[in-house]
């Protein structure tokens, strides 16, 4: 079971690719929603207020990712899809890549545009800090104080992350575990007398 994915956690450095006078500025951003995408596009449009094309592609999600590619006025599939192709090639998710084009006076043709947007996206991804992250699952544990030592021992032995804890009349922990270890950890707590464990969706 694959329980890792590649992503970026900070924006990339700006890249620039030139072809027949046209300039292509490339940017990569970590995104988790369409609002994030809109925010970054809005920032770039202020920064490059004389540019005419802000072509982009993004992919959000891990196990069932969704994507979108936008040509922003360039011929159909000449910009957004070549950018998205590089996202797939580098196997990254939760990422937005925007290529801002300044027209240089010479038309590149559809083939020229495809190769230029692809190259710009490639350079942008090469300039990004791509990291591998693990897919985590979260469980809620509820138990009485007399079970605290037993629960803590398992958490320590299995190197489990405690996301949050609430100590009131009884104890409530939210824990995070790697996906491929999730079933084993669930069963360990499920077998523990008077400890209520449930998966958080």
Automatic annotation (TrEMBL):
Name of one Pfam family that matches: Impact_N
Record-linked SUPFAM superfamilies: Ribosomal protein S5 domain 2-like (SSF54211)
GO biological process, one term: regulation of translational initiation
Annotated InterPro entries: Impact (IPR023582), Impact_N (IPR001498), Impact_N_sf (IPR036956), Ribosomal_Su5_D2-typ_SF (IPR020568)
Domain Impact N-terminal residues, every copy: 20-124
Gene Ontology cellular-component terms listed: cytoplasm
Tree of life domain: Bacteria
Residue stretches in coiled coil: none
Record-stated family: Belongs to the IMPACT family.
Record's protein name: YigZ family protein
Organism: Polaribacter porphyrae
């Amino acid at each position: 079971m694959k329980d890792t994915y590649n992503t970026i956690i900070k924006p990339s450095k700006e890249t620039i690719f030139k072809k027949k006078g046209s300039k292509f500025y490339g940017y990569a951003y970590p995104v988790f929603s369409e609002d994030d995408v809109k925010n970054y596009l809005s920032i770039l449009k202020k920064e490059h207020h004389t540019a005419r094309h802000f072509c982009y592609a993004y992919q959000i999600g891990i196990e069932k990712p969704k994507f979108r590619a936008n040509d922003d006025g360039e011929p159909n599939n000449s910009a957004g899809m070549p950018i998205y192709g590089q996202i797939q090639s580098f196997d990254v998710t939760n990422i937005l890549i925007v290529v801002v084009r300044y027209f240089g006076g010479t038309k590149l043709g559809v083939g020229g545009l495809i190769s230029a947007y692809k190259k710009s996206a490639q350079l942008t991804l090469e300039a990004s800090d791509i990291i591998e992250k693990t897919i985590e699952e979260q469980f809620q544990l509820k138990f009485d104080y007399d079970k605290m030592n037993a629960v803590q021992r398992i958490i320590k032995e299995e190197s489990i992350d405690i996301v949050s804890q609430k100590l009131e009349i009884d104890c409530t922990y939210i824990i995070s575990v790697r996906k491929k270890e999730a079933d084993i950890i669930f069963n360990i707590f499920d077998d523990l007398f008077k400890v209520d464990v449930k998966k958080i969706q």
